[in-house]
Structure formats: structure tokens, C-alpha cells
């Protein structure tokens, strides 16, 4: 039976019994100078915790401390656990490993994209996976996507009305979106509008995705039901969103590290009211998190002149108020979940100790492994199994135009002027063979890619928007060798030269995610980035390049399950070829 309330009646009686002295708290934080968001100042109190809940904050000490761990917090500063309101926890790392890593720097609540779960798992397995993650110290909430953000086959089955409504009804889902499908909505798609109304009926939020949107578009989307947007890239775009009533999530990510610039421009515009701001790292690549998660964004905010309390509020209580779960998260007060960060100094938001659901996950600078191990195969995330082979017959390139990279994620069409019939291309130019192949071997699409590399011989990646296989390279045999090695690994990113693997990142969870800890994955990703830069990759983030080659929420041309797709005209220019 699904538990209807967070705490059962028996637990609530126990919480009250701690105040009466018939039960002992499990943790007592004595003499704690903590951030009180009601009074907007630092105050001193004793904080009683029983299991996963704060049961009292005030001057009194408990009568019964027989089974209580007592921690003297004199000289420290305590703040609520940080909240990442817009996480994409499938960027080579997985939700379990990312949560464990994030918790070490004080981020103990994540609001996660459900895209991979919707595309790769059935509804039943996806919900089992979510419930399994609930047993870990880090709190995880989820979004409900309304579309695949690319052109996929059988989209109407994956994002059926019954599936979307089941997600919206799930107790761990707190919002609909992000609305990458807003052009369809603007053009009259009433099913998306219906889902938005259903989201509102469940008293849940809707996250926008409106890069470059005009004032009129922002106003229309607010009328349709959008509540927040994270795509402002200038101070003026922030102001425009605030004027239309939006909550604004200030982004600082691996492909858009905008927070310092945004804060400078916000201050130049004399915007000094911070309660309508949140912050997000927007699913950055692994290496970007080397300096932390939300703690790094708080640090940047303080350095850029945001008042210290407001900087902490943008990663705590502002988020909790927006999502209507302030009774559980975002502040240190009676009744809240015991997510508490202990700091050496309020100017340094990276905690020395972290409590998540009342459990120590970090203590005096040392990590404590409190997360439950995952049985990935039980959850439906197994190594990729492919019972088909790639051959030279698949390597036929006769397309009149190819895809040119403008930056890490924006791609435009270009006319192919070189001879592409050879087995190998010259390293004197930046054009490569480029393929997307169905992970089940049913179809393929072949074209050319300009701007990715000059000397990359063969690269295969099962990491992509849809989990289909990307191949890039100068040498057809090395592309096949990379594919074969990727298949042998059970999924991953593999580069080959002269038939031999030279760089690889195994992704044994559906070919999309690694089971390795984030710190290990960080080292693997850095080596891959260095290798690709040596081979001529000149942009910021190759992981996002691989992810977004298929993503039709970005201009201008994409390679998808349906074929080469013109985003602006919403048409398939060249369909996929059946194998």
C-alpha cells in the first residue's frame, strides 16, 4: 500500500513524545547559530532531531538524552540543506550517484527530469525506481515531461494521455515540463494545454523553457499556466520575466555559465529583490561540478554582491515556497525534514558536516556512506545488449548537405563539397562522417558533421537524447571498431584509432549512465575532453553535443529517429533508411 502521508500516526505521536521527554531525540545540535528565514537573521537555539525530522527549535534542552547524539555547534553556522530545483540526473552520472556526490557539498534535495525514465523504462518500472530512491538520505522529487524534445517513433505511446496523467498524479512529481514543446502549444496543441491544466488541478507547478522569448510570448505562456523559466541569458531577460509574474531560475551550467553576468546585469538594472529568484546548474556535465553544486552558486552570488541571507535563500526557502513544500524543506524550523548544513563560516557555503533526513552524510569533512546500494538490473537498467552488427554496407554517405556545429549545441545545415565516397577523410578539414543508428538495428541516417573534429578517427556513443547510437569519425573502419567495442562494454563512449580503443567511458546502465561514483566519472570525462580537444573539438562541452544532436527544442537542424529534421519548418528533410 502506498503511504498516503509522509509520517504515519505512530511516528507523529513519537515526535510529540520527544517534547514530553518520554522519548530521547536522536540528534541534539546545541548552541547552534542558524539562519532563521522568518526573522531574516542569524539566531542561536538548540535543535532537536528525531530520526528524519526536526521536532523542536528553541532555547530549551530535552529532558531525555539517553539515546541522543549531542553535538556542540558553538562557533559554527547552520543553514538548511540546499535544493537544486532543475536537475537532469542522467548526464553520464545517474540519479543515485549524483545525489551522493551533491550531498557532500550540502545539496540534499533534487528536483529531477523524468525524460530518461519515460523513454527507457515502462511506467511501472519507473515508479518502482523512484520509490527505491526514496529510501536514500537525499530527497528526490521529479518533473513530468509532456514530449520527448525530439522527433521519436511512437511518441504518442510514450507520452500518451494515460502515461502523462499517471506521472502528474504521482506524489513525488512536483511539476510539469520543462516546456520544450511550447511552440506546439502556441500553434494550437490542445493536448499539451490539457496536461498543463491537469498539472494545475493537482496544485503543481509548470516549468518553462523559453530561450529568447519576447514579452508577448512570455505573457501568453503565463496565461497558459507557466510559472517559472530558467532560460534568461541577460539581465533584461530576467527583468522581462519578473514583469510578467514569473519565478526566475538563474542558470549557471556547463554550457551556460551565466550566473556572474546575470547578477552583474540584474544589479545594473537596480533589481535588488531576491525572493523571486532560484538558481540551477541545469544538469551540467560531470567535470563542471568539481567545485560543488548549489554551494558554488551561493558562493558566486555572495561574491557578486547578493546579501548573504538572500544568497542562501535562493537555494533554500525560495525554492521551498515556490514548490509549496516549505512545511518540509527550505528552513530550519520545527516539523521540517532534518536537512541541515553545518558551515565553518557563512561566507563559505560548502559545509563541513551535512545531515540529510537526520543522517550524517558528511561529518567533520569526511564522507559517510549512508546511501542504499542500488540493484540496477532489478530496476531495469542493464548493460546494453545488441544482437546485430555494423558493416561497411551501412557506411554509405551520399547526402547533398550535412550538419555544421555553431557551438556545443547549435547546429545548422551546410552544403557538402568534398568527396565522401572514400574509406577515410583528410585531417586537413573539420568534416567527419556522421551517423545515427537505431539501438535495435532497424534504421540508420547517414550525413556529414562539420566542426566536431579534424583528426578523430572513430567514435561511437550510446549516450544520446534517445539512447540510439551516434557514430562520428574520419575512418569508416575505426567507426566500426569503436561501435564493436561499445557493444562489448554494454554501452558507452568509445574512440578508436587503427582499430584499437584509445579512450572509453563505459555506460553499463542502458548505455546512457555510468554506475561509477561521480568523482571517478569526472576523471574519465576530463580525459575524454582532453582527447577530443587534441582531435580538434573546439567547443565547451562534447557531452552536451552528443546529447543534443537529436534535440528539436534547439535550432536549426537535427538528426532524429524520423530522419534529418528542420526545426524551424518542422519537417523531415531526409527520412531514416531501414537496414
TrEMBL record:
The keyword Hydrolase applies. InterPro entries: Adenine_deam_C (IPR026912), Amidohydro-rel (IPR006680), Metal-dep_hydrolase_composite (IPR011059), Metal_Hydrolase (IPR032466). It comes from the Bacteria. Residues 409-570 form the Adenine deaminase C-terminal domain. Keywords: Hydrolase. It catalyses: adenine + H2O + H(+) = hypoxanthine + NH4(+). One of its GO terms (molecular function) is adenine deaminase activity. Signal peptide: none annotated. Residues 78-361 form the Amidohydrolase-related domain. Its EC number is 3.5.4.2. Belongs to the metallo-dependent hydrolases superfamily. Adenine deaminase family. PANTHER family: ADENINE DEAMINASE YERA-RELATED, N-ACETYLGLUCOSAMINE-6-PHOSPHATE DEACETYLASE. This is adenine deaminase. It comes from Mesobacillus selenatarsenatis (strain DSM 18680 / JCM 14380 / FERM P-15431 / SF-1). The lineage of its organism: Bacteria, Bacillati, Bacillota, Bacilli, Bacillales.
